[in-house]
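Hi, here's the filled form for the chain we discussed.

Project: internal
Contact: R.S.
Residues: 302
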Amino acid sequence: MKYIKGVDLNLLKALDALLDERNVTRAASRLGVTQPAMSGMLTRLRETFGDPLFVRAQRGIVPTQRALDLVEPLRQVMCELGALLQPVEFDPATARLTFTVAATDYALRAVAVPFLTALKQQAPFIKVSLVPVDDTQLQSQLERGEIDLALVTPEGALPDLHARNLFVEHYVGVLREGHPALQGGDRLTLAQFCQLDHALVSYSGGQFRGVTDEALEKLGMARHVSLSVKSFLIVPELLRTSDMVAILPSRLVLGVPGLTVFEPPIAVPGFTKTAVWHERTHQDTARRWVRSLLFEACADRL
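And the returned structure, exactly as it came back:
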């Protein structure tokens, strides 16, 4: 290693040119340097290898045996250096890697289906790991490469991370098919809405109040929330087997059988879903491709 530390890679390029050209002037021209500069590099090469390397001849210079012995190893090193400096080729059809996405259960449901459908068609050997998001560990997980991308709201997009908004979500009302509250049509009055038994999702757990209640409060009204759960994913099944109602993100119930979706009788603020990732993977060819596919698959089309 002590010898490697003292080697200037430009000297290896100079040696390669001298071995090919057998002429200091032509070697200098090939590298785009002056003849005195090339002569200086030759002097340093001689010092590095402890050998004259080239001696004068009638036409230019000729290599010593030590220089000839260096031809094949030098070519191998130059080829490996060239490969090292070339961008890694990426072919989705044959690529093998694991891409880890962290998100809430809702975001995983909203993103995973369209994303994985597209991914399996174009990159069948890429594995995807879907894990819960931990806001307290997000920065360090991205820095350590434990996750490649996280799905958060803009408020959770830390300023030193790369970020891109994926879509704007809106809320819809959800009841089971055949619910008696909708026998007279496909809409509920605000009074009917408030009289029903409501289910609510609380990520912190045990809360019975959310953005819908805040909107109702501004109108001097209230609803009855009898069920609080931590996961969005259980709510559709609970609604299918009861007369409860819930206000849910539209992507969560899109195409889910056994449910009726209706426009809420009160405006409930939606939210934006944002993808964030770290600088350490920003330029990685494979992960850039996977991110691009995710962005396209999850674009706001509703």
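Let me know if anything looks off before we file it.
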